[in-house]
TrEMBL record:
Annotated GO MF terms: 2 iron, 2 sulfur cluster binding; metal ion binding; oxidoreductase activity
SUPFAM superfamilies linked: 2Fe-2S ferredoxin-like, Bet v1-like, CO dehydrogenase ISP C-domain like
Gene3D superfamilies: 3.10.20.30, 3.30.530.20, [2Fe-2S]-binding domain
Keywords for this protein: 2Fe-2S, Iron, Iron-sulfur, Metal-binding, Oxidoreductase
Domain 2Fe-2S ferredoxin-type as annotated: residue spans: 2-79
Transmembrane segments: none
Record-given protein name: 2Fe-2S ferredoxin-type domain-containing protein
Species the sequence originates in: Cupriavidus yeoncheonensis
Length: 425
């Protein structure tokens, strides 16, 4: 963990805790609740996450938060009183330059730079300068007209003076990668010291680069850093802890308890090569990877380090799973506490940012627990003479889309119960 000092929308944050691999966009959204910065491609291509660093437009999805140590960051929320932004918002509304609005914060940030830096810009100049911001709704006609109208208004008002905030060469924020160690005096950030991680800071002019592809297998906790997202799940099985611990040592059987999972090769005591088939609407992903396991018999804990890549797209994931087995009911039952940390990149990364992921993880955990109980029950009653694993309900693919709709349906039902249930009472 590092601490950084930066100014966001005019407010100073001293000693803000942040993981070295956290992107600026994640830091702003998750730690400061500044959700006006939108995340689209997460590869620095679409421009939805564009904001200002020291007055210069920058892609916050590929800019490391630690690289902004000492910098001044301005998000769309901090431009309410900006004269140029006020004129642009009015022009965007007047020229119908927005529809769904997802690209609009980044579009406005880039448009403001064009207006101030290019007061004599032609339509061709504007189109070229705005080509880094993508819009799937408008066709750009209204956007170009809005920018042209603001340039004309400012020129008529005598404000057509070139304003270029860039004072040095190199990537935006390149001179700010000077973060202090964790525990810096006065380390505080509002009341939410949350942080998310993605890429290690380089501390040089090339700091804000896209994340490198994960290794095939994570060899040790120090090699790949902490995962991006952490989920905690708990379930209980009515079997003694020693039986559950012994079963968790059979990696092949444990892996195939997960819906949609199969094995690419026979598992060993410390290594497994799984395949996970996931369906999200029309998208079908087949993740193939490898994982290594470290177990601590004295404390009944284990940690799995692994990574996988989708064979059909550029999506990849890596992470770690830690489990703790705790005795309950006088030793007749076992509580399994699971902590899952993961980082997902590529086309499927968009599905890892919603709070619904926690509900989906809970349902997947329930399915895993049911399969685990079935395997443990079979182990007690005896294994077939041919030595095959105990039969459990097999799921050829994990239908994440169906889980999403199921979660949404339950949430809507709960909302209606809370709204109308009390009235009946």
């Amino acid at each position: 963990m590092k601490t950084i000092n930066l100014t966001v929308n005019g407010r100073e944050f001293a000693g803000a805790p942040v993981e070295p691999r956290t992107q600026l966009a994640d830091f702003l959204r998750d730690s400061l609740d500044l959700t006006g910065t939108h995340l689209g491609c997460e590869h620095g291509v679409c421009g939805a996450c564009t904001l200002l660093i020291d007055g210069v437009p920058a892609r916050s999805c590929i800019t490391l938060a630690v690289a902004c140590d000492g910098a001044s960051v301005t998000t769309i929320e901090g431009m309410d009183d900006d004269d140029c932004m006020r004129a642009l918002r009015a022009a965007f509304s007047r020229e119908h330059a927005l529809q769904c609005g997802y690209c609009t914060p980044g579009m406005l940030a880039s448009a403001r730079d064009v207006v101030l830096r290019m007061p004599d810009a032609s339509e061709q100049d504007i189109r070229f300068a705005m080509s880094g911001n993508l819009c799937r709704c408008t066709g750009y006609v209204g956007i170009i007209k809005a920018i042209q109208s603001v340039i004309a208004e400012r020129k008529a008002a005598g404000l057509g003076v070139v304003q270029n905030p860039r004072t040095e060469l190199g990537p935006v924020g390149s001179g700010h990668a000077r973060c202090s160690a964790a525990g810096h005096a006065g380390a505080s950030i509002a009341s939410r010291p949350q942080a998310v991680s993605t890429v290690k800071a380089a501390g040089t002019a090339g700091a804000a680069q896209a994340p490198a592809a994960p290794p095939a297998v994570r060899q040790s906790p120090a090699d790949a850093g902490k995962p991006m997202t952490t989920l905690n799940q708990t379930f209980t099985v009515d079997f003694p802890r020693d039986e559950v611990w012994e079963f968790f040592g059979r990696l092949g059987e444990v892996t195939t308890c997960l819906p949609g999972a199969s094995l690419l090769a026979p598992a060993t005591e410390t290594h497994v090569e799984p395949k996970l088939r996931i369906k999200v609407g029309p998208i079908v992903a087949e993740f193939e990877g490898a994982a290594d396991v470290e177990r601590d018999p004295a404390n009944y804990t284990g940690t799995i380090f692994g990574s996988a890549r989708d064979t059909r797209s550029s999506s990849a994931t890596r992470g770690e799973i830690r489990y703790d087995l705790v005795e309950e009911k006088g030793g007749g039952a076992t509580r399994v506490d699971v902590q899952v940390g993961f980082a997902l990149t590529g086309s499927l990364a968009q599905f890892s940012r919603s709070s619904i992921v926690k509900d989906i993880a809970k349902r997947m955990t329930d399915a895993f627990a049911e399969n685990l109980r079935a395997r443990l029950s079979q182990a007690r009653t005896g294994t077939p003479s041919d030595g095959t694993p105990a039969p459990v309900p097999q799921v050829s693919e994990l239908n994440a889309g169906a889980l999403v709709f199921s979660v949404l349906r339950d949430r809507i039902a709960a909302l209606f119960r809370s709204l109308f249930g009390g009235r009946r009472g």
